[in-house]
Write a structure and sequence with these properties.
With 369 residues, the chain is of the alpha/beta class. Strand 5 and strand 6 form a beta hairpin. The protein has an 8-stranded mixed sheet, with no helix packed on it.
């Protein structure tokens, strides 16, 4: 008895649940409501597959449902299709509104999209005639573009075929990579080398790796860049100074008088250089005085070398204390004795100078008799 009751209960739940789901989806899909509805009529040049029960979107929000589609063969082209629209709440449409039949998804289905128009525009009157358009489907738009540009697409396909034929034939760099095993191996080796280089950089090897991983190296490089920047700034200041006629170079570049004087100075230096070069050439040929004889006459050059050797010998002997002058330079006793002798001689000369007037007076006195 209990088992039968449980089974009947489960069957009842399943039955009434199924009925509830059917009612829910029926109400949801049909837009059934007990509230008062607002009906409107819109006109289109083409139905484009719109049918009863399709949704009406206002600013992207589902606000109504299509309740009927009618064909009017005796009216203007833009009014051939009339669509009955039902709304829960009457939409407020302004002048400048837009209404169109569009695809709901890429897989199919139709929907009527309504843009109410600018809020600052005047509202439409309740008896205004609503006219919409039909938006082209994405696939139809693509087909239209392909049809209008058929020649261009044919040319593109021909070019693609030429490219693929060239690649298959091994033409060009990419074709060679696809067909030449040696070039492909070289590229693989190059990629392997690049991978090794990147590994070394990551490990801090080399200049770039050191700059990336070593903070001290980065600081040094930063200082170098700052110095280089300062150098360029100094160069900019110098060029600005030259442009503003500051300094000698600026004056020579901008002042005609200084420029002409600088040119004359350069010409004079050129003449001096030419004359000096001529003197050297005459000297090499032995035609220019003592310098020429020194350069061109080997005998005089040898005598000069001998003279220099004798002078070096004399200097050596003086340094070693040989001879009188050498002993005076090298021995303190000889120097002291010479200084004492000079002082004694100086004293005698001073006594003789002081006694000179007495001697002169005596000679005058006794010489007169």
């Amino acid at each position: 008895m209990n088992s039968n009751s449980r089974r009947d209960f489960v069957l009842g739940v399943v039955f009434f649940g199924t009925i509830a789901c059917l009612l829910y989806y029926t109400i949801l899909l049909t837009g059934f409501s007990f509230s008062e509805k607002t009906n409107m009529v819109a006109y289109f040049p083409d139905a484009s597959g719109i049918k009863h029960g399709d949704a009406v979107l206002i600013a992207g929000h589902r606000s109504g449902t299509v309740r009927g589609v009618h064909y009017n063969g005796d009216t203007a082209e833009e009014l051939r299709i009339s669509v009955d629209l039902e709304f829960d709440t009457a939409p407020a449409l302004h002048e400048g509104y837009m209404m169109r039949i569009a695809e709901f998804t890429m897989l199919g289905g139709r929907v009527i999209e309504i843009e109410p128009g600018p809020l600052n525009a005047p509202l439409l009157s309740p008896d205004a005639q609503l006219v919409g358009i039909v938006a082209p489907s994405p696939l139809a738009s693509i087909g239209e573009v392909v049809t209008e540009n058929r020649e261009n697409f044919v040319a593109i396909m021909s070019n693609l075929r030429s490219v693929t034929d060239s690649l298959a034939g091994g033409e060009g760099a990419l074709g060679a990579l696809l067909n030449d095993d040696g070039l492909a191996n070289d590229l693989a080796a190059a990629m392997h080398s690049a991978s090794i280089i990147l590994d070394n950089v990551n490990e801090g090897k080399g200049v770039i790796g050191s700059l990336i991983s070593n903070e001290e190296q980065r600081n040094t490089f930063s200082v170098l860049l700052e110095d280089l920047k300062a150098t360029f700034n100094d160069m900019r200041v110098i060029t600005a100074s030259v442009r503003d006629e500051n300094g000698l170079i600026g004056a020579m570049l901008n002042d005609p008088v200084m420029r002409s004087e600088g040119i004359e100075l350069v010409n004079s230096l050129s003449k001096i250089t030419t004359n000096f070069q001529g003197i050297l050439e005459d000297a090499r040929a032995g035609r220019s005085g003592l310098l020429g004889k020194f350069i061109g006459d080997e005998a005089i050059a040898m005598q000069f070398n001998n003279l220099m050797s004798d002078m070096r010998e004399v200097a050596r002997r003086l340094e070693d204390g040989e001879g009188t002058i050498g002993r005076l330079l090298a021995e303190d006793d000889a120097y002291l004795e010479l200084m004492e002798s000079l002082q004694s001689l100086n004293g005698q000369l001073e006594d003789a100078r002081e006694a000179q007037p007495v001697s002169t007076f005596t000679q005058m006195l006794f010489g007169s008799f």
